Amino acid sequence: MYMFKYICKRIGLMLMTFTIIFIICFVLVKLLPIDYSVGFGEDTEKITAQLKARGYDKPIMEQLAQYIRRIVKDGDFGIGFRMPEYRGRAVWDVFIEKLPPTILINIYSTLIAVPIGIALGIFAALKKNKWQDHLISTTVMVFISVPSFVYATLLLYIICFKASLLPLSIASFADVIKAYPDKGLVYTPGTMNWHMYFNKEMFLSMLPAVFSMSFGSIAGYARFTRAELTEVLTSEFMLLARTKGLTKAQATTRHALRNSMVPIFPSIVGEFVSVLSGSLVIEKIFSIPGVGGLYLAAINSQDYDFFMMLSAFYLLVGLAAGLVIDLSYGVIDPRIRMGAK
Q1: Cα angle vertex 151, ends 150, 156, to 5°?
Q2: Long-range CB contacts (within 8 A, 24+) of 171-176
Q3: How many Cβ atoms sit within 10 Å of the Cβ of residue 62?
Q4: Tens-place pLDDT, residues 103-153
Q5: Which distant-in-sequence residues (6+ apart) come within 8 Å of 177 by Cβ?
Q6: CA proximity to 283, closest of 10, 126, 98, 31
Q7: Whole-prediction pTM value?
């Protein structure tokens, strides 16, 4: 009962926070002095008519009311009007089309970073104050201090350009279709096209971006795991476990690891969200046609509807991650009861 009330309360607070930030973003971006007709060419009159039909020439609060009404009633998040390649296209269709590569590179980097980072942290904690611990800790500090785009640049130059071990950029749909003519692959605009991403050609072209985002996450997991496990290993209950006859390995696996993982596993969700945010720059560097590159293009082009849609996406991901992190404590350790007095 306590958990149910807590979940309802947190969801309500999350939606309230989302609504407030969403309205602030909408009002601020609408205050920008943007000329709708700039760069339209032959499409100027057509696009301007579409924007006026959506109420873009009306007061801001009236625009906000119409915008929310269109989203709730019709699922209409607007159209693009500043970026030539997306001009006149539905924002939701473009977003859905760009979502798979963003999700995949983050999932791949998490699958690589979590086991390696936690394993290094455990090894460093078990070898505390020895040369192995000092080596891992020093390496971790270096990798944490260096931004991910620096790794991306080095990988791009050394692995992709000099050694030619991996492609310089992600494979295009045309390349995938050409590489697998017998599979009958077809690209459909406005859809996720998941079938285009699960093949060797696309996977290898994603690896440089995945490795670039993994280094920082590995260092973060290793540092956090080492700190937590070191603290647990010096706790009094560990001494009690040893006096009962358990070996060091048994006490570590049965008690120390279990207790130290309680704060570590929820941090994986938070790290995933931070990687998702960090992929904005990585996607640009490796020419990945994902949500991150689209977001940067929308900001640079001052495209209202794309900016609002993608801002809402990243905002919702961040808020939902916070809720999942809090709830996961109770799942990992049944002794924790969220919301109980």
Answers
A1: 100
A2: 171/201, 171/202, 171/204, 171/205, 175/201, 176/201, 176/202
A3: 10
A4: 888 888 888 988 999 899 888 888 888 888 899 989 888 888 888 788 888
A5: 185, 186, 187
A6: 98
A7: 0.82
